[in-house]
């Protein structure tokens, strides 16, 4: 089992930035797919960004503004969110699943370990 704890959410003005963090209980860099997913009321959970090792996926809607990265020494996943817009708020979840071979899933259905989420709001 993998425990994931998110932090770094908050409220920012449109155009501002936040960095979300996800602390994992195990080393995940090369053997786990790690991702960020966003949940908003009335909508299905959607993939924002996913990474394993040097591979990175970022959703088209935020690709130009968000960066996903990992600090292997700290077993921590990050999501740097820049130029935030009113379309970006939601409850952001960190998630993971064991994957040593092949590409990562970008769907939340493929992930087996989940944090509790950290909220992000954006004001105009």
Tell me about this structure.
It is a single chain. The protein is mainly β and 124 residues long. Strands 2, 4, 5, 6, 9, 10 and 11 form a seven-stranded mixed sheet that branches. The chain has a four-stranded antiparallel sheet with strand order 1-3-8-7, with no helix packed on it. Strand 7 and strand 8 form a beta hairpin. The chain is globular. The chain starts with a strand and ends with a strand. The model has no long low-confidence stretch (mean pLDDT 95).
Specify the helix fraction band: under 10%
How would you name the oligomeric state of the polypeptide chains in this document?
A: single chain
How much of the sequence is in beta strands? over 45%
Distance between the termini: 40 Å
Helices and strands, in order, run as: EEEEEEEEEEE
> pLDDT under 50 segments (min length 5)?
none
Shape: globular
Chain-averaged pLDDT: 95
Structural class: mainly beta
Cα-based radius of gyration, to the nearest Å:
13 Å
The main β sheet shows up as: 7 strands, mixed
Count of individual beta strands:
11
* Number of continuous helical runs: 0
Q: How would you briefly describe this protein structure?
A:
By secondary structure, the chain is mainly beta.
């Amino acid at each position: 089992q993998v425990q994931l704890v998110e932090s770094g959410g908050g409220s920012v003005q449109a155009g501002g930035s936040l960095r979300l963090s996800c602390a994992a209980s195990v080393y995940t860099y090369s053997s786990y797919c790690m991702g960020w997913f966003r949940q908003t009321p009335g909508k299905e959970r959607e993939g924002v960004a996913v990474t394993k090792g040097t591979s990175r996926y970022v959703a088209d809607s935020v690709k130009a503004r968000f960066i996903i990265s990992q600090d292997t020494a700290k077993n921590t996943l990050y999501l740097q969110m820049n130029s935030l817009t009113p379309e970006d708020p939601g409850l952001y979840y960190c998630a993971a699943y064991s994957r040593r071979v092949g590409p990562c899933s970008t769907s939340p259905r493929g992930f087996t370990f989940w944090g509790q989420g950290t909220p992000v709001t954006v004001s105009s």
